[in-house]
Specification:
With 282 residues, the protein is of the alpha+beta class. Helices cover 17% and strands 42% of the residues. The protein has 2 domains: 133 residues, 2,3-Dihydroxybiphenyl 1,2-Dioxygenase, domain 1 (Roll); 118 residues, 2,3-Dihydroxybiphenyl 1,2-Dioxygenase, domain 1 (Roll).
Length: 282
């Protein structure tokens, strides 16, 4: 087997027997020029994260050599064994959210597997929490929070259409109006609200924004190292971003042997972002 990693960050595409193999397909691909693609985690133990993401939550693991990818509807969770510099709280991405058919059943499963349900600690005191669940009236749904290994904060949002569990939202922390405006302008996300939260939508994901009591840190090096978007005509998109003043940490790069193009940059608030083109072709 010949193994090729994508800048050692992607860990999602390999050459197996001389032919490119990609591990999963994005379900929202084709619904817009920019869709959500992946979460990339730095983890102290891949095995411990597999127990959470696969054994407990039901994600599908695909293994090639030492590298692991867990697939859920419209999101790939990459696991890179590298000790993180901290959890998601305190960064510009406070947590990631998944839609589940039953929050009650999910909480029971997560708790039985030994993971803490932290709903009470993560919500204002005025909101009632009963046995790990909170009813959010302005969204007409039940939610709960858990802490995955390496302090990755995960929210579960009940949705009748979420069968199986699927990506729901990314919850940013920082200057709300500025963050929302930047993502709307940069990715052509549709501005709106999610209940009382300021938000914007892209195919496959809701981008939610909340203020932070303290200036949040960046994501690079933390347990959620970066988020990823799949982009049509990535080269032109990168040229547009550069013209708008974006400085790339890794400029547009073509990987013809793999049928992929990639780029990396950091948003104005500290969130490390990967752009890809080609993951939806496999």
């Amino acid at each position: 087997m010949t193994k090729i990693t994508i800048l050692s960050l992607m860990a999602s595409v390999f050459v197996l027997g001389g032919a490119p193999v990609v591990l999963a397909q994005l379900t929202a691909a084709g619904q817009g020029p920019v869709v959500y693609g992946h979460h990339h985690l730095n983890v102290t133990s891949i095995d411990e994260h597999k127990k959470f993401w696969v054994d407990t939550l039901g994600g599908e693991v695909i293994t090639v050599g030492p590298l692991e990818v867990v697939r859920f509807p419209n999101v790939l969770v990459f696991l890179r064994e590298q000790a993180p510099g901290g959890g998601t709280k305190g960064t510009t991405v406070n947590h990631i959210g998944f839609a589940v058919p039953s929050t009650r059943a999910t909480v029971d499963t997560v708790r039985a597997a030994g993971y803490p349900i932290v709903t009470r600690a993560e919500l204002p005191a005025a909101l009632q929490v009963e046995d790990g669940l909170a009813y959010i009236a302005d969204q007409d749904t039940y939610i709960a929070y858990t802490m995955a290994p390496d302090d990755v904060k995960v929210e579960f949002v009940q949705s009748a259409t979420a069968d199986p569990m699927a990506l729901h939202h990314i919850h940013f922390a920082g200057p709300v109006d500025e963050m929302k405006a930047w993502y709307v302008e940069t990715f052509d996300a549709a501005p709106g609200k999610r209940g009382s939260f300021e938000a914007a939508d892209l195919p496959g994901v809701n981008l939610t924004y909340s203020p932070s009591d303290e200036a949040p840190g960046g994501t690079a090096g933390r347990s959620l190292d970066h988020i990823g978007f799949e982009v049509q005509d990535l080269q032109a998109f990168c040229q547009k971003l550069e013209a708008a003043g974006v400085t790339f940490d890794r400029p547009y790069t073509e990987l013809p042997a793999l049928g992929l193009s990639i780029a990396f940059f950091t948003d104005p608030f500290g969130t490390y972002i990967e752009l890809t083109e080609g993951l939806d072709e496999f």
